[in-house]
Specification:
The protein is an alpha/beta fold. It has twelve helices and twelve strands. It has a seven-stranded parallel β-sheet, sandwiched between helices. The chain has a five-stranded parallel β-sheet with strand order 2-1-3-4-5. Helix 1 links the parallel strand 1 and strand 2. The chain is globular and about 70 Å long. The structure holds nicotinamide-adenine-dinucleotide. Nicotinamide-adenine-dinucleotide binds next to helix 7.
Length: 321
């Protein structure tokens, strides 16, 4: 009986689907990230592995699983934890979970945009402070979305949905991507910018949705932060290392930009020193896809990918090599 290892407990029907398909399914008994050696021991003898973005899938991982391994299904759309060369040299299929989390991540991104621009965390603290002010004409003034320019960096599945939400709220949409999307431009009235620099100079809110690649690591760095308007906000729900976090702390401290809202961090689960001391930052601990709907669907799509590959069928959502 093929063995499928699941490196962390997941919501939804994914586990049941794997069991119903006739596999021996072994789920981590711990609701935490497994230590590396613990993980390597745990995956031994697996034919398929349903893993988390916190599990590095490289040569060591593949060797630890052993010769039966045929498929590694990531419980995430981003696959920067995969070493594609290691997977392909062992002829192992890697899969991810696109689309099913797009709405959840876009909604969370918009929640962050609203939270930072309307100063909701500061307001919540003030309301609970024991001495909240009465109505005051200048208490916690924020910024409206309508009429502002929302800049999307990476107009893929999630970026384009955030753009649509911004459009619905009356923002002007500009975007930068390595691929221009004329159809989307027509549909939403979005304007393509030929360089990230142009986008950074014009936008009032910049929302980052690129995958983490060599070409996008520190895409937002000290030099590019200085190109932003001092009144602008940076929002990142993609991957932490896309932003130079130490440079961001400096920019926020010195008024180079107005504020930032972050779901992802360079050294997760930690963040750069000083970030959590700043009032002009909102932080969430990598929960952008954390809805019951998305997380259940992610588990089910990962299960379908494993079932397909172990039954000799093509995977539904393979990672592009
Ligand atoms: P996608 O592949 O549909 O979109 C990514 C877009 O970025 C594409 O349009 C691509 O052309 C563009 N791109 C690639 N390199 C670029 C570059 N150098 N400059 C500009 N654009 C570039 O992916 P998606 O489903 O929209 O997801 C985007 C990313 O969001 C994922 O890779 C993942 O890292 C992140 N994510 C985070 C969470 C979370 O929980 N915070 C959840 C889901 C996804």
């Amino acid at each position: 009986m093929p063995k499928v290892v699941v490196t962390r407990k997941i919501p939804g029907n994914g586990i049941k689907m794997l069991q119903d398909a006739g596999f021996e399914v072994v789920v981590s008994p711990h609701d935490r990230v497994l230590e590396r050696q613990e993980l390597l021991n745990f995956i031994q003898g697996a034919d398929g592995i349903l893993c988390m973005l916190t599990d590095k899938v490289n040569e060591e991982f593949i060797n630890a699983a052993g010769p039966n391994l045929k498929v590694v299904a990531n419980f995430a759309v981003g696959t920067d934890n995969f070493d594609p060369a290691a997977l392909s040299s062992h002829n192992i299929v890697g899969t991810n979970t696109p689309d099913v989390l797009t709405e959840a991540v876009a909604e969370h991104t918009f929640a962050l945009i609203m939270t930072i621009t309307r100063r909701i965390v500061e307001a919540d603290k003030l309301a609970r402070s024991g001495s909240p002010p009465a109505f005051g004409p200048e208490v916690l003034l924020g910024m409206e979305i309508k009429g502002k320019t929302l800049g999307i960096l990476g107009l893929g599945r999630i970026g384009s949905r955030v753009a649509e939400m911004g459009k619905a709220m009356g923002a002007n949409i500009i975007y930068y991507d390595i691929k221009q999307n004329a159809e989307f431009e027509q549909k939403v009235g979005a304007v393509f910018k030929a360089t990230p620099e142009e986008l950074l100079k014009e936008a009032d809110i910049i929302s980052v949705h690129v995958p983490l690649l060599d070409s996008t690591r520190h895409l937002i760095n000290a030099v590019r932060l200085k190109m932003m308007k001092p009144t602008a906000y940076l929002v990142n729900t993609s991957r932490g290392p896309v932003v130079d976090e130490a440079a961001l702390v400096e920019a926020l401290k010195t008024g180079v930009i107005k504020g930032a809202a972050l779901d992802v961090f360079e050294g997760e689960p930690n963040h750069a020193p000083g970030l959590d001391q700043l009032n002009n930052v909102v932080m969430t601990p990598h929960i952008a896809s954390a809805t019951i709907e998305a997380r259940s669907a992610m588990g089910e799509l990962a299960a379908k990918n494993i079932i397909a590959v172990l039954s000799g069928q093509p995977p539904l959502t393979p990672v592009q090599r």
